[in-house]
Amino acid sequence: MPIPPLPADCVLDTNTVLALWLFEDPTLTRLRAAVEGGCLRPIASPPTLEELRRVLAYPQFARAPAQQQALLAAYQGRCHAVVPLPPEGVPGLPACRDADDQKFLELAIVAGAPLLLSRDKALLRLARHRLVRDRLKVMRPEALEALLP
Class of 8-147 per CATH? Predict the structure, then answer.
């Protein structure tokens, strides 16, 4: 599947969200600007937001609860939509080797987002799967960064 034209809905996995707003990765400045400017419109779900909330509380990030809440609220405010996922999962999708990442794949399909940004090898491997490749573009955020003006 080719890169969708912008503006486009997208799903950002937790590591991508952290890279963009917790760590402010200097190699992803155009990507962050594309989200903040509305060219890329993140979509979340209650389970993906809950994972982000939980990860922001990890001791290694050394963020006070107020900072964690502020980061979560700022990201949620950037989200174009919060879409519920069916409790029974999404039929017709391959299972991700990392079960914790399945929710991002399911969210992209349920929401009709043509793009999933992730650095996770299990999700990136699924990009080539016959049940995914014609429905969704899964790519590293750095790859999309390189394509942005």
Answer: alpha beta
List the structure tokens of 43: 């979509």
Kindly state the tokens that stand for 104. 């991002």
**Average model confidence (pLDDT) across the chain:** 93
- The tens digit of pLDDT for each residue in 55-78 reads 999 999 999 999 999 999 999 999
Amino acid at 15: N
What is the tally of helices (H) and strands (E) in the chain?
Answer: 7, 5
Mark out the alpha helices in 10-149 (DSSP H runs).
14-17, 29-36, 46-56, 65-78, 102-111, 121-126, 141-147
Query: What are the structural domain ranges in the chain?
Result: 8-147
Q: Which residues contact 26 (CB under 8 A, 6 or more apart)?
A: none
Question: How far, in Å, are 7, 36, 97 from residue 75 at the CA level?
Answer: 18, 10, 27
